[in-house]
What we know:
Elements: H1 3-8, E1 22-30, H2 39-61, H3 66-79, E2 99-105, E3 111-117, H4 123-133, E4 138-140, H5 141-150, H6 164-175, E5 180-181, E6 184-188, E7 214-219, E8 225-231, E9 252-254, E10 260-265, H7 267-272, H8 275-286, H9 290-302, E11 309-314, E12 320-324, E13 328-335, E14 341-345
Parallel strand pairs: 3-4
Antiparallel strand pairs: 1-7, 1-13, 2-3, 2-8, 5-6, 7-8, 9-10, 10-11, 11-12, 13-14
Helix pairs in contact: 2-3, 3-4, 4-5, 8-9
Amino acid sequence: MNPIAAAAAGKAPAPGVPVAPTLLIHGGAGTILRANLTRKAEAAYRAALAGALRAGQAVLMAGGASLDAVVAAIRVLEDDPLFNAGHGSVLNHEGHVELDASIMDGATGRAGGVAGVRTVRNPIEAARAVMAHSPHVLLAGEGADRFAADQGLAIVDPAYFLTEHRRRQLDRARANDRIELDHDGRVTLAPPAPPVPDQDNRDGQADEGKFGTVGAVALDTFGNLAAGTSTGGLTNKRWGRIGDSPLIGAGTYADNGTVAVSGTGTGEFFMRGLVAYDIAARVRYLGVSLSDAVDQTVRCALDERQGQGGVIALNARGEVKFGFNTEGMYRGEIRGTGEPMVSIYR
Length: 346
Ligand code: ASP
């Protein structure tokens, strides 16, 4: 059984086997069906996810910290327009890209996040800088952009983030008066309207099921966990809407004693259910397994409330779990010097 299948089945590594540095990533969950992806598109996703896993693996195998591996993997995905993070992120109602990200160190409990930034090329680096170089946990808007610039991070013109595909996606969402989870156009937080059909689906992908928020969780050779998440949020979001991704406990959480988690899905449900922390709390207070904790949280915080999404979770014993209630989740795992394992569908 490959590690992804083993994880889906909630299996732990054999006892006594030393725990190899491990990295899990996701590139969003949603209506991701085989029938909606061309072979070419699927190959592109697989290559992108494998590239991110390799970037994180290089850090871990050089003896680097899990925090650095998380940043390295997420940076690759932020730079790739396939995903709803960094370059190629979804647009808000006014046609701007506003980015959210967070990171947490499982060894110390320190954390950092940025929300609604418009000029930081790699928001995950800004989140890390907030954690490492500010007395705060979460910075938002212009101040966060200014802080990132002061920290010497790469600053770009907001046009850098824009892609034509996202412009068309926003036009459709606005025409339908919908606020959309990127990779699942059916999810709506506004009253439903008759859909405007996608005229732009010329590349063989279901346009609304195309991209996603990104995240990573890692375990390093020192036994330390870290988690990070980065996103452009929801298409057609309004009024400075912030999602779960920059919020510690909602979209991201890491604690060496319990678990590292990164989530993706309708952020409002992750915020109401404190999904990432809820998983850790179940492990800590109920003493349930990582796998059971993820299943329980997905059921209570998402299924039972009609929320959609998924999580990647990893503990210090190297147990992993991919949990989601959507048709698919772009995801991957790499252990030690092993090969990247990538999965997309349920
Ligand atoms: N969770 C993100 C948000 O609500 C969206 C996503 O996961 O794609 O901002």
